[in-house]
Specification:
Shape: globular
Radius of gyration: 19 Å
Mean pLDDT: 80
Number of strands: 19
Strand content: over 45%
Helix content: under 10%
Number of domains: 2
Structural class: mainly beta
Largest sheet: 6 strands, mixed
Number of helices: 1
């Protein structure tokens, strides 16, 4: 299994996340109709450019999948991130925790208004999987592509036609600049600092948040593997917490703090 974890860790998707997480929604779980994963890609409706959208995409959680020739048993699956959504859209699922058991039905809800370019967008799903028991996510931050799970969203012009999905295409890239509005995508976590940096045993993390609630604090190493994750209570304004070296070896790391709207990241160093 060590080989499997190494292979999966190399499939991490790096890049800015422009996809807004909506938070909990009232969407219900729906049977996708046949098999596991998503329904046929062409059966997912197109999103109309400039129109307010609520698009529900049903799925059925796999019980097993194969990643680069390695069989994996799923005891529980958690959806950590959906990125490359057209600008102005946000996502949620029918579960507040975004956690699903094998063979369970679920639904993604995509909502908002986008003015991004007409065409198809290959959506990047980052998942954590419990492969030994349901209480421990021992494989974290893997790209769903590693298990052969793909999702495309299509944007069409008003009064236009919905083109078939082309799975050989890498698709369009969502805008990095989004217009101000109800789905404003600018980060609401700012002024993120890690001090001291480099750190030896522990460091103080400070940041400013525009909203109150729960934020995720994640540390990844230089090859993209998640080495630490926790949830912290966030208030409007300045926030502070502490991170410890623990058993982490010396090296370069990325600390990310995210809430229901966006994330901010900062590189830091653990010294010998």
């Amino acid at each position: 299994m060590k080989k499997l974890f190494t292979l999966l860790s190399l499939t991490l998707f790096f890049g800015a996340s422009y996809a807004q997480y909506c938070g909990s929604s009232q969407v219900s779980a729906v049977n996708p109709g046949s098999g596991y994963g998503f329904p046929k890609l062409d059966s997912i409706a197109c999103i109309v450019q400039g129109a307010n959208t609520t698009l529900d995409i049903p799925f059925r959680t796999y019980t097993h999948f194969t990643a680069q020739g390695n069989p994996v048993t799923i005891y529980k699956l958690r959806i950590d991130e959906m990125s490359n959504l057209p600008c102005g859209l946000c996502w949620s699922t029918n579960k507040a925790t975004n956690e699903f058991s094998p063979d369970e039905y679920g639904t993604f809800r995509i909502q908002g208004t986008t003015n991004d370019a007409v065409g198809e967008y290959k959506i990047h799903l980052l998942l954590s999987v419990a492969t030994q028991n349901a209480n421990n996510y021992d494989v974290q931050g893997i790209d769903a592509d590693a298990g052969g799970v793909y999702l495309y969203l299509r944007v069409m012009a008003a009064n236009g036609s919905c083109a078939p999905v082309d799975t050989s295409s890498l698709g369009l890239t969502a805008s990095t600049q989004c217009p101000t509005g109800i789905n404003d995508m600018k980060s609401n976590v700012t002024s993120l600092t890690v001090q001291p940096n480099p750190m030896s045993s522990e460091a103080n993390v400070t940041f400013t948040s525009e909203v109150a609630g729960t934020s995720n604090l994640t540390i990844t190493n230089i090859v993209g593997s998640v080495v630490y994750r926790t949830a912290i209570n966030t208030r409007i304004g300045e926030n502070a917490t502490t991170i410890s070296k623990g058993n982490l070896p010396a090296g370069i790391y990325i600390l990310t703090v995210g809430n229901n709207k966006a994330t901010a990241s900062r590189k830091f160093v653990i010294a010998e």
